[in-house]
Amino acid sequence: EMSKTEALTQAFRRSIGIRIKEETEIIEGEVVEISIERPSTNPATASARTGQLVLKTADMESGFDLGQKMIEQLQKEKVAVGDVITIDKASGRINKLGRSFVRSKDYDAMSANTRFVQTPEGELSKRKEVVHTVTLHEMDVINSRQQGFLALFAGDTGEIKSEVREQIDQRVAEWREEGKGEIVPGVLFIDEVHMLDIECFSWLNRALESNLAPVVVMASNRGISRIRGTQYKSPHGIPIDLLDRMMIIHTKPYTTEELHQIVKIRCEEEDVEMNDESMLMLATLGTKTSLRYVLQLITTASLIAMKRKASVVTKDDVRKAYGLFTDLKRSVEYLEAHEKEFLFGEEDGNAARMEVAEDSVQNA
């Protein structure tokens, strides 16, 4: 289980990245020769294979002795003569960049995934700057427990201690001072923000003051409503002191032309062929009902057209879908008109309350 503030903390730190720069020594060149000795018949040394790898650039050529792990890496990457590879000196990791242009005529047919590159120039040993981008949350999870990187794939991160986060923040600050790391602030989007309670809002107030705070975008469709966890009312259900820190953007209802463009884009995304008259009809319905309802009618109208084996959705298909599926306004009007026919309607509820009141009076 996870507390509300812990979930918000993890969301905050997921949206903050750090770009770590690291210089590594690599060996880069074209493979000229790979020779692997046959396994020894002696049982004591049968598993330890050795070999030699010859690499070259446009300016030089050199040979390297291979151990068991390097031979396994070469076999795993399926390195062959003519491939251009890089070898990380620190980790021994081999990366195949592609085949040399000189070897492009070696075979009559090659895979479409084969990539041809130029033979490297200069010395074989080079220094290369490698950039890794990770989020603060990933660093928290990895350092929170043994084999913490496995929790990143499982998603079972659980509660992370504040001491771990403080150590990570301190390490990030050191990297920034040394020029090894760079903060990449992201964007955190909180939809239906009025569903948060006063505890979450107080945490947000404090978190937004942090140096590592991301850009927070909040969305709400509430007017003057009660703040969850209190009896006080506030605009959008957000405390006044938090609203004062925000840049508020107000939105306007879509016009018919804008709705027409949205319907057109949605039809293209869903591969639905619809003529302009049908799109205009849906756009007009959108001004009277809602955009969500209109977008759902696209699929249903398309199915109706498919049933009559038509390739293009017409106004009749839209009209039939509109008649089959009611929107919110028509549904409310229907319920008000046929309220007596439903169980536990308003009048039934009043009658039931009156019966209970009469029974209590008689029993008294």
Describe this structure in words.
The protein is an alpha+beta fold and 364 residues long. The chain has four domains: 98 residues, Beta Barrel (OB fold (Dihydrolipoamide Acetyltransferase, E2P)); 66 residues, no CATH class; 70 residues, Helicase, Ruva Protein, domain 3 (Orthogonal Bundle), CATH 1.10.8.60; 32 residues, no CATH class. It is built from 13 helices and twelve strands. The strands form three sheets. Strands 1, 2, 3, 4, 5, 6, 7 and 8 form an eight-stranded mixed beta sheet that branches. A two-stranded parallel ribbon has the order 9-10. A two-stranded antiparallel sheet has the order 11-12. Strand 9, helix 6 and strand 10 form a beta-alpha-beta unit. It starts with a helix and ends with a helix. The C terminus is likely disordered.
Key descriptive features of the protein:
single chain, 364 residues, alpha+beta, OB fold (Dihydrolipoamide Acetyltransferase, E2P), Helicase, Ruva Protein, domain 3, 4 domains, eight-stranded mixed sheet, two-stranded parallel ribbon, hydrolase, RuvB-like helicase
Nutshell version of this structure?
The protein has 364 residues and is of the alpha+beta class. Helices cover 41% and strands 21% of the residues. The protein folds into 4 domains: 23-38 and 49-130, RuvBL1 DNA/RNA binding domain (OB fold (Dihydrolipoamide Acetyltransferase, E2P)); 186-251, no CATH class; 256-325, Helicase, Ruva Protein, domain 3; 332-363, no CATH class.
